[in-house]
Write a structure and sequence with these properties.
single chain; mainly beta; Immunoglobulin-like; five-stranded antiparallel beta sheet
Length: 207
Amino acid sequence: VPMVAPGNVQVHVINSTLAKVNWDTVPLKTVRGHLQGYKVYYWKVQSLSRRSKRHVEKKILTFRGNKTFGMLPGLEPYSSYKLNVRVVNGKGEGPASPDKVFKTPEGVPSPPSFLKITNPTLDSLTLEWGLPTHPNGVLTSYILKFQPINNTHELGPLVEIRIPANESSLILKNLNYSTRYKFYFNAQTSVGSGSQITEEAVTIMDE
């Protein structure tokens, strides 16, 4: 198997899900056989928004030939990763380069995990929601938009409310009685808004 590890391994983080890895080629005599390429082992150490450690699954990408760089797609935003690089010949792979740590920046969050609308009265509805499964960063706020739907399914004016990120429920007041409303709800990080979930609910007709 090859004798030495690639040197001068550098990681350039391009965005929250993509990084580029560079390395120096090893001297051909240390390959001790036909140079097939380089393998990059990389794994997520932890999410920066949740401090929980979990079972670490190492991923491997193979770059054929005498390459000196490779792209790592599909990374998770706002996470800490480690990687190393190895040379491959027909017999197997050589020693690993020293582990390199890199961090991905924040991304936009996944949708809130649920939106539940309860306690209808003549002029109010109660909204409850759950955190996004993947915050992908530090949540800054939630955005709630809603509008009435009339009997011919036409949509009325859209109202938008920004809700602090530490809230998990809201009582909407001053609504019209016996009216169907459509709700659009999403979470935000400093990078931007995530996908929204939608829900409908009706205020009651009379007490």
